[in-house]
Amino acid sequence: MALVPVLALIAGQFLPAYPLRILDMILLYAILGLGLNIIVGYAGLLDLGYVAFYAIGAYSWALLASGQFDIHLPFALVLLIGASLAGLAGILLGIPVLRLRGDYLAIVTLGFGEIIRVLMNNLDGVTNGPQGIARIDEAHLFGWTLSTPHDFLYLLVALLVVVFLFVWRIQESALGTALSAVREDQDAARGCGIDTTRVKLVAFAFSAFVGGGCGVVFASMQRFVSPESFTFWESLIIVLVIVIGGLGNPFGALLGATLLILIPELLRAYADYRLLLYGMALVIIILARPRGIISRAFGPSWLMRRLGGGKC
Amino acid sequence: MLTFDHVTKQFGALKAIDDVSFAVKPGIITAVIGPNGAGKSTLVNMAAGSYGVSSGRILVDGVELQRLPKHRIAHAGLARTYQNIRLFDGMSVVKNLEVALVPPQVGRLVADTFGFTPRTVAEERRARCHAVLERLGLAAHAERQAGSLAYGQQKLVELARAIVAAPRVLLLDEPAAGLNHGETELLKQHILDLRAPDLAMVLIEHDMKLIMSISDTIVVMNRGQVLAQGTAADIRANIEVQEAYLGQPGAIKDIEAAARGRRNRVRIREGEGLTWHQP
């Protein structure tokens, strides 16, 4: 599992463009899954509107690096801006809604995801509405042009490693302990001195930050954005990535993304039955492994202990 | 020191706590006894912030708890255990304890996440948890999942979680409920062992033998009011006096019946035709 980035880089050397694009998508969804895991997997809060943060990131790049307003900011800066805007949106959304629990939170976040999409659809003057924004700039990072799927592979692998280490760090830190306590028993956590609202807000912000960063990368890969890309279906896929892979486990997000992107590609030959078979595959996986394929306990810390590396 | 100052709690038409005032001194064990419905648990839940206070003040070393949100009450130095165990079942025993040591400021929490706090801080926290587990004889279970432990051990883990942050006030809500004789003896030793000059301990319990053997002072409650306060001997005498001379269908019978469990209790109460008394 820890070899994933290395394998991805090796595969990138000889894969043709099309499979390479799929590999890129797997990596992108793995990063999204890692980000969403902070909220859903660690804090146990079901967020069905994660795509909103992804969209905010994507539109950041689309608006700040295109002919739309003739603004052409560098990629690294927009990556930071997009992620931060999404993080800010996470906090603003979190303040009113994080008092809610369970189903109610899921419904409100779902609504938020739709609001952002509808907003992008109707702010014609800014976002071109349903037509979307085309002719987005090519991304340049420290003098290196990102245009082919092969270029993005390097970027995505680097981001995957960074985000992976980040979420692992969260899990192992006091914040992770606090989030787990919130997940297990919110009232008892408060009784132990955890300011549950603030802790959840921090988790929401971190999670949104990662989602926003992914959006920026997505927009620079596609060089075209439209509200179509940010439907509820996307939020659902990202939730499925972590539920299928294993909630609260970073490895789970990697495996989940691989399966969820790869299965529909492998089923392309069966055109008409594709969605049916896809659905069936997911049902079978979840029946066989209701807690996800890799359970929470077998995370990176477990692996480190097994490898004799001690506790990180 | 924990002080209840003219505390009242109203649930609709019912006055669950009616103008209760008493102080719990540090260094000793104060037991609160009384029949079911006397208001013992309500008192604990108000102090810990689970229930609001209708009127009056609850203070820990001069800080008014009733104005604070629940997590701030914990920071003010009040810790509790629950009548029905409330551990973080899916987490390891040592992680359960670490929850009580999570830094309260969000800034520090974030700094901690990014590794800006020195590694020794986290190690210190962990060492503190292990020391408490060692003290309560739970060291061997530190890495086990809390939910997988036996009932008696879970009760001890809850006690460990309550004391790990070195509280000034410790509220024990029926710690012996559901424990067998041996486990109760062990618990008794641990509670006596926890007695410290700067810790005020409140014990709510139905096991009269346990109460009489470890309490330094006893507060008797009935129908939301404090009936009497004194040493174990005082209370026994006091209640008997009340019963003998005032003919009140009395406290001691109620208390003993309560020890036999809630179901029995309800039946007795119905038999006696007692009703809630509304002052």
Strand content of chain A: under 5%
H-E order of chain A: HHHEEHHHEEHHHHHHHH
Question: Structural class, from helix and strand content of chain B?
Answer: alpha/beta
* Order of neighbouring strands in the sheet with most strands of chain B: 6-7-8-3-9-10
Order of helices and strands of chain B, N to C? EEEHEEHEHHHHEHEHEEHHH
Number of helices of chain A: 14
Question: Helix coverage percent of residues of chain A?
Answer: over 70%
Rg of chain B (CA only): 20 Å
Looking at how many chains there are and whether they match, the oligomeric state comes to heterodimer
What's the overall geometry of chain B?
A: globular
Number of helices of chain B: 11
Question: Main β-sheet of chain B, in a few words?
Answer: 6 strands, mixed
Radius of gyration of chain A: 19 Å
The number of domains of chain A? 1
Describe this structure in a few short sentences.
The complex is a heterodimer of chains A (312) and B (279). Helices cover 71% and strands 3% of the residues of chain A.
Write the layout of secondary structure elements.
The complex is a heterodimer of chains A (312) and B (279).
Chain A: H1 4-14, H2 17-42, H3 51-64, E1 65-66, E2 71-72, H4 75-97, H5 102-122, H6 124-127, E3 139-141, E4 144-146, H7 149-172, H8 174-184, H9 186-191, H10 196-222, H11 232-245, H12 250-266, H13 274-288, H14 300-306
Antiparallel strand pairs in A: 1-2, 3-4
Helix pairs in contact in A: 1-7, 2-7, 2-10, 2-11, 2-12, 3-4, 3-5, 3-10, 4-10, 7-8, 8-10, 11-12
Chain B: E1 2-11, E2 14-24, E3 29-33, H1 40-47, E4 55-60, E5 63-64, H2 70-75, E6 78-80, H3 93-99, H4 106-113, H5 119-135, H6 151-163, E7 169-173, H7 181-194, E8 200-204, H8 208-214, E9 217-222, E10 225-230, H9 232-246, H10 251-259, H11 262-272
Parallel strand pairs in B: 3-8, 3-9, 6-7, 7-8
Antiparallel strand pairs in B: 1-2, 1-4, 4-5, 9-10
Helix pairs in contact in B: 3-6, 10-11
